[in-house]
Write a structure and sequence with these properties.
By secondary structure, the protein is an alpha/beta fold. It is 32% helix and 18% strand. It starts with a helix and ends in a 24-residue tail after the last strand. The relative contact order is 0.15. Bound molecules: zinc ion. The site of zinc ion has 5 residues, from loops.
């Protein structure tokens, strides 16, 4: 643990102890320990020992392998995995018999827009809602449509839920882990310029329109304004940087074919991100923008549904230096069909969407053929899409990937990319997206094997158990009155939400 994260953890422990009125709580301790032990005097040895939970008889998908490791045990200590093996001796641990269920890592949505969940999409903040309402929508969806459906981490890739993330990490609110880019960075008239057409220049460029005032987006011109936006995001706790590298579907001014930030603007974003040990992700669709951004050192490539084979080969040659982030459902399903697109899209936006939908299947085929390093991110926000996020995973299978690949995009590969945040990683101590010694205890138990039938992940009845950071948020399999496995509705414990 670094000195900095130690400081962070210490501060956190003090805060939580104070809130719960407990005399002591270990840094890695969970709500389970808080619930299990009555408050004793400070320094009692029993209390300082982190809770140990031994899962037996589980079949593990480790985030990478294309088959399950059968009949395994997993020992969780506090908030991380201590050991994985065929037989583990831990006499002091509370034992949970998995009864042959499948254990997977918590799912990771690598393309989410937490703050863009008001009903009207990106225009919401101009027309109807303030930042407080945006936060309320966000929190509702983070719990009910994300965490409680087994998505234990989101990479938030335009928007600023950084203080919501802070409250979650402090145990003040329930929710998934959040890696946020902070506000997306766009040129005037680009994909992140969500102000109305007649907003005066002074208001737009002094960050006074509502989208920028809520810090969900930045409208910039020139490298110096990029510097300011990148540094402000990082100052607020962003884990990486999102730029708009090309036109889009859901924006008013920018046709799909255009380029986004200019070369010197992209270069500056990459430079400042690299100076801070982190990386740049980009919105882009076609060969010209992908190639420009590859030249300039961008690492995470979203969308890309209009790219051709030479560009795909170029990405493949870079191995795990760059990643393709696949938004399957919104492109293959939604954007494939003019009539299925959201009602708030204009005719022009729907026409762009149809072009994207056509390209998406082709891009997935090419990326898969050349074995490009790939992650999955839903880009599904706003009702009704946010309620169907896991259909983005099953969509991967419809687009030609195996169930194991689809899950790998949402677990193992995602965990690798999250660690690209380096010193800006908000969860720096352990690994994510995998089940192995030294990973965070973000675990799911399924009744059935999703590698045989990926569609079972859509059946909430089959998801029996959700653990995030060693805390239990859903539990339909262990006696509910046992103190280690109080159901998620138990009151007054950190991370446990009154449903
Ligand atoms: Zn997006």
């Amino acid at each position: 643990m670094s000195f900095k994260s130690m400081l962070k953890s210490c501060g956190f422990a003090v805060t939580v102890s104070a809130i719960l009125g407990l005399s002591s709580l270990t840094v890695t301790g969970s709500a389970l320990s808080a619930a299990a032990a009555p408050a004793k005097s400070a320094g009692a040895t029993e209390e300082n020992k982190p809770v140990r939970i031994l899962f037996t008889n589980v079949n593990i998908f480790d985030g990478f392998s294309d088959r399950l490791a059968k009949g395994m045990s997993v020992l969780v200590e506090g908030n991380h995995i201590k050991e994985v093996g065929e037989s583990i001796k831990a006499p002091d641990a509370y034992v949970v018999d998995g009864a042959g269920r499948t254990m997977t890592p918590g799912l990771i949505d690598m393309h989410q827009h937490v703050m863009l969940n008001p009903p009207e999409g990106t225009a919401s903040y101009q027309t109807r809602w303030d930042g407080a309402a945006g936060g309320a929508f966000a929190q509702h969806h983070l719990v009910n449509n994300i965490l409680l459906k087994g998505i234990t981490t989101v990479r938030d890739i335009a928007g600023d839920p950084l203080d919501i993330a802070k409250a979650i990490d402090m145990g003040q609110l329930p929710g998934p882990r959040v890696y946020s880019s902070g506000g997306a960075i766009s040129q005037t008239g680009g994909h992140g310029d969500w102000a109305g057409r007649n907003v005066p220049e002074d208001i737009l460029h002094n960050h006074k329109d509502m989208s920028q005032a809520t810090q969900n987006t930045w409208v910039v011109n020139g490298p110096d304004q990029v510097t300011e936006a990148v540094r402000m995001n990082l100052r607020r706790g962003a884990a990486f940087i999102k730029i708009m590298g090309g036109g889009g579907v859901a924006s008013e001014f920018d046709p799909l074919e255009i380029m986004g930030l200019a070369k010197d603007e992209v270069a500056r974003a990459v430079e400042i991100a690299a100076d801070n040990g982190t990386y740049v992700a980009t919105h882009a669709y076609h060969d010209d923008s992908y190639n420009r951004l590859l030249d300039l050192g961008v690492r995470s490539f979203e969308h890309g549904f209009l790219v051709t084979e030479p560009t795909v080969k170029r990405m493949a040659a870079k191995g795990q230096e760059v990643v393709w982030s696949f938004q399957c459902f919104m492109s293959v399903n939604t954007f494939g069909d003019y009539d299925a697109m959201p009602g708030f899209f204009t005719h022009e936006q729907k026409v762009k969407g149809v072009a994207v939908g056509k390209g998406a299947r082709n891009a997935a085929k090419l990326m898969n053929k050349h074995n490009v390093f790939t992650i999955g991110g839903s880009d599904m926000f706003g009702i009704p899409f946010v309620e169907r996020i896991k259909e983005d995973i099953t969509c991967n299978v419809d687009a030609g990937y195996t169930p194991a690949q689809a899950l790998k995009h949402w677990t193992g590969n995602a965990g690798i990319v999250l660690k690209w945040s380096g010193p800006k990683d908000p969860y720096p101590t352990y690994e994510l997206g995998t089940i192995k010694k030294g990973a965070y205890a973000d675990l799911l138990l399924w009744d059935g094997n999703p590698l045989d039938d990926i569609k079972l992940i859509l059946d909430e009845e089959k998801l029996n158990f959700i653990m995030k950071d060693g805390l239990v948020f859903k539990n339909t399999m262990v006696e509910a009155d046992h103190p280690y496995f109080r159901p998620a509705r138990a009151p007054s414990t950190r991370g446990q939400y009154p449903l």
